[in-house]
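Researcher: We're teaching a course module on how sequence relates to structure. For the next exercise, students receive a sequence and then see the predicted structure as tokens, so they can try to spot secondary structure elements on their own. Here is the exercise chain.
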Amino acid sequence: MKNSHRNARKSKVLSLLAVGILFCLVSTGLLRISFGENYGVDLTTLLRADRSVATSSSALGSEALLTKERGALVRKAAVEELISRLRNASQAASGGENFLIDFSEEERERWIRINSCKCRSELKAMYKRRKWINDVEEVNGLWDTVLEEYSKLHRICLRRVGRQNLRRFFENRKTIKGCKFAIADYSTGGGLGNKILSLTNTILYAILTQRVVLVPSSTLLPELMCEPFVGSSWLLDSKEFPIPPWDSSVQFRPIWKNHYEVYEELDKTPGASAENFQKHPPVSSIYASTMEESQYQPDSRFFCDIEQEIFKSVTWLYFTGCLYSIPKLFAIPAFRAILEELFPSRRVLTRVLRSVMLPNDFIWDRIVAADTKHLKNADRRVGLQIRYRLNQAEFSEKNSLVNQRILKCGSKYNFLPALADRNTTLQSHEEAKPSKFELKVFVASMFPGFVDFANESYVPHPKMNGEEVTLVQLSQVRTQLYGLDVDRQSLIEIFLLSFSDYLVVTPRSTFGGLAQAYGNLIPWFLEFRNDEPGTVERAPCQQAQTVDVCYQEADQVYSCPYDPSVDQKQISDVVPYIQRCLKIDALDGLQLITKDTTGEMEYPLASDSTMELLE
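Model: And here is the predicted structure for the students to work with:
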């Protein structure tokens, strides 16, 4: 018996030692684990390498420990590999010319002065002052390192090509080793929320795939946001550069191909199969490809490893759309370990927005001024975002219903004070509370309905504990408008909403979704649907299940013909922390389930998931 225990302990020690040695080999670069030039670590190879270790120790009940160690090893190695690829791409892009690489401290300081971004240093304090919520922000220096290396690549590639020569570079179908490009456009007709979420997808994808992201001037975002990449610029002149319109007969159609043509190349490859593509990664002859299946999102095959492999050889990718799709980047096996290590709580949208999508000084000054004038010194802040999609017609029909439900929601979840009993005087309640409690409600809506209603029927009446309620609404345009001034005002109101302790939003609204993500908040969705005759009255609102925004109209099933391990499987079955959105928010969406303020997952992962130990 003693020998058995001694052998068991020895086996366990040897198993952990083997994992440690494997980690050291990977982290020092002596062992390079990938297939082809894949974006992520080849998880199959890595797991096979230490499967024998796990097997030898399973009888000892240490499988859970090894799973955790293995997962940590895979994720750490994946991020180190990403950083290495960014550095290698920068070195290749420089062509050995040191002047392209060099960026002195003096040059950095000069760039920062020219591209001032006060929000970058002041935003954190605006969230930390909240009294009713703990701002759980990713504290992960790896993302900062990745951004720094990516900024270097961005700077070198644009120096090498020359900003004024981008069009000539494209028209002549030139290439530079280490430099590939992603244009982050958006579909016209969407509001600012759609625009920012759509571009954020492309920015994160560009970083994962070492592409220089460029943002067309027609999006207006370069006039709203700070330059995010030190020493460089993401601005692409829409009037100068041949951005692909939907009309397929235009001059540059021979250069811009549709992504289906890339898939056609892949499918027509001799001996096309999962096994052959693992041995010989596919290569495309196409120089530039548009990526959207429609004006909303990439098609399902985009979220597959082999399809990602062939897109690596396409120099230019053009993305447009109006939907948020980051959750499905986690569904791509080659990216998953990287993203899990960079964003362990999966609050990826909050982290990316707060580091890359920050308002310029002109807008930030207006945000701070409005906050100081209307909302400062509140004991509690409540944000209400009310959107009537059908404009005046829906407002006229549902305004009364919505107003009542807002008050019921606030009373039920204790963020709006209940009215005092009619038989009790205000004085008695104020005497019961030693100091005045100021609650300020910021309302973002195209209509004044709730503010008018509340100022008459709610605000003047005594509250249970003598609270003083103030309502603030900055605009009421009554219809959807577009343009630079509209976007500026929208961004101001999105940030003011994000400063709230409690947030109530309209389902399926990207405007409210952005406030939710910037603010790192789990909001309440306001119920807009009418009560069914003869049924129980609907709840006035429902709290979200996560900080993450819903990826609306997302396909729920993998469509990866060259990856039989996932093809036609439910994404939520393969990646348990990607779940369906709440029905009140979207009938056909997916979202990341983030971890709550205690570090626990807001959605429990399946017990048999290989990703269950992510802490």
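Model: If you want an answer key for the exercise: The CA atoms of residues 209 and 312 lie 8 Å apart. The two ends are 36 Å apart (CA to CA).
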